[in-house]
Amino acid sequence: MIYTLTYNPSIDYLVTVDTLEIGKLNRMRKDTYFYGGKGVNVSQVLKELGIENTALGFVAGFTGKEIEEGLQKKGIRTDFVHLPEGHSRINIKFNGIEETEVNAPGPFVDAVSMRALRDRVQQIGKDDILVLAGVASANMEKDTFSTLIAELPYRDTRVILDTTGEGLINALCYHPFLIKPNIDELSDLFHETFTPSDVGSIAQAARRLQDKGARNVLVSMGEDGAVLIAEDGQIYQRPAPAGIVVNTIGSGDSMVAGFLAGYLQNNNMEDALCLGICAGSASAFNEGFARGDEIMQLYRLSR
After folding, report:
1. Residue 237, pLDDT score
2. Which one is predicted more confidently, 99 or 33?
3. CATH ID of 1-19+27-162, from 3.30.479.30, 3.40.50.620, 3.40.1190.20, 3.30.310.50
4. pLDDT tens sequence across 230-259
5. Catalytic residue list contains 31
6. Residue 98 reports pLDDT greater than 80
7. What sign has the CA pseudo-torsion 167, 170, 176, 182?
8. Is residue 52 very low, low, confident or very high in pLDDT (cuts 50, 70, 90)?
9. Is 159 helix (H, G, I), strand (E, B) or coil?
10. Residue among 298, 279, 276 at smallest CA distance from 290
11. For the segment 270-289, what is each residue's pLDDT rounded down to a tens digit?
12. Average of per-residue pLDDT across 28-57
């Protein structure tokens, strides 16, 4: 079983406007909403690709109930911890102009609820996969990902880690199977500007992360595709498919899901990279997450 963990799931309210003028009445052209949070995003795209999974994390209040029931209606298993107070967040995403996001902080996570989540993680088996995505909530310790990985009952459990900063660096000693910084996050980690044209420098930085414990490093580069530095030393690079970008929110999470689906189906890193890039691109070409058939169509054209 694949488990995804999202500390702070959300309802993402996508509003399309022609202009946005601060201090004035603005009218939306259309609106829609999605269930969000990085791990939740991975769960939804995995399900589209036919991969069963279970979503873990915290939910609270009426919005939390909507997130949980909405994911279940999509056929995604959930095992959320219900917080005693507050409401899961609603984030506002503006489309139709330069992409603008307003993200809410989310509810308070108490110690009893955190213990309940840790108990769930400690039930994950040797052959399972755990996807840890996003960042800790404001009131939580920054090293919570490290704590969860350390408490896994089996060292052979494969962990995919999609976070950045201190939370990423501190977890590398537990040898995550895959980490996925984007090129801007990689630049922030090393206080150096990386560009998609300089794959050599990107690979050198990725190997420094491997020296700290990461097994495979997938660096997403937006419209320039991605670079994978595998644990056997191989470097794989693929461009993104051509298309009209509509909304890039969640495309990185779609890439993680596509990579994981490709790896499980073919046990081949190059195929996994190709499907990952196609999943990320297909979602970028849609207002929401791409359907499985849209992803597979791009994949067949890209092979």
Report:
1. 95
2. 33
3. 3.40.1190.20
4. 999 999 999 999 898 888 888 999 999 999
5. no
6. no
7. positive
8. very high
9. strand
10. 279
11. 999 999 999 999 999 998 89
12. 95
pTM: 0.94
Q: How confident is the model at residue 175 (pLDDT cuts 50, 70, 90)?
A: very high
Catalytic, out of 31, 79, 188, 253:
253
Distance CA 240, CA 275 (A): 11
Burial class (CB in 10 A: 0-12, 13-18, 19+), 289: buried
Each as own residue / partner, the long-range contacts of residues 111-120 (CB below 8 Å, 24 or more positions apart, any chain) are 113/58, 113/81, 113/82, 113/83, 113/84, 114/140, 114/144, 116/81, 117/5, 117/56, 117/57, 117/58, 117/81, 118/147, 118/148, 118/151, 120/56, 120/79, 120/81
Domains 1-19+27-162 and 177-303 share a fold: yes
In the chain, pLDDT over 70 holds for what percent of residues? 99
Q: In angstroms, rounded to a whole number, what is the distance separating the alpha carbons of residues 19 and 70?
A: 31
Among 3.40.30.10, 3.50.50.60, 3.30.470.20, 3.40.1190.20, name the CATH number for the domain at 177-303: 3.40.1190.20
DSSP 123: T
CB 270 within 8 A of CB 283: no
Where helices occur in the chain by DSSP H, the ranges are 38-48, 61-73, 111-121, 144-150, 165-171, 183-190, 199-211, 251-266, 269-284, 292-302
- CA 47/CA 279 separation, integer angstroms: 12
Instruction: Report domain extents, the chain.
Output: 1-19+27-162, 177-303
User: Phi and psi dihedrals of 132, rounded to 5?
Assistant: -105, 120
Token couple for 293 = 């058939």
Residue 216 predicted with pLDDT over 90: yes
**How far is 123 from 33, CA to CA, in rounded Å?**
32
Q: Are 89 and 103 in contact (CB under 8 A)?
A: yes
